[in-house]
Design goal:
Elements: H1 4-41, H2 45-58, H3 63-83, H4 90-107
Helix pairs in contact: 1-2, 1-3, 1-4, 2-4
């Protein structure tokens, strides 16, 4: 019984770290999806293509991950259109995308 206690502690720690990693990954994907919705609303097609490339190159190809990106994109696109916000210039939006890309890479465990 006492030998299984350290194993249980290790498993609980691993589960906690995995959940934290998954949460960070979902947040980073959501941020990129939000920017994608803005880029779509502002007809910045080159930037939307770039974000798709970032997703394909960075995160696992899993349905739930794609759904997080799509839902964030959809919500952002609708919010942007209904709120009457002014489109950011392409350079500013590209800078925001670069920051989101780095957050996504870190959350996905990509170091190079």
């Amino acid at each position: 019984m006492t030998k299984s206690l350290p194993l249980l502690a290790l498993l609980l720690t691993f589960a906690s770290v995995t959940h934290a990693d998954e949460t960070a990954l979902r947040q980073a994907i959501g941020e990129l999806g939000t920017l994608n919705g803005i880029a779509l609303a502002c007809k910045q097609n080159a930037l939307t293509a770039r974000m798709r490339e970032i997703m394909v190159d960075t995160v696992p190809k899993e349905r739930n991950i794609g759904e997080v990106f799509e839902q964030a994109t959809h919500a952002s696109f609708l919010d942007f259109g209904s709120s009457g916000k002014v489109c950011p210039d392409g350079k500013s939006l590209a800078g925001d995308i670069d920051l989101a890309r780095e957050k996504l890479r870190l959350a996905a465990g990509k170091t190079s």
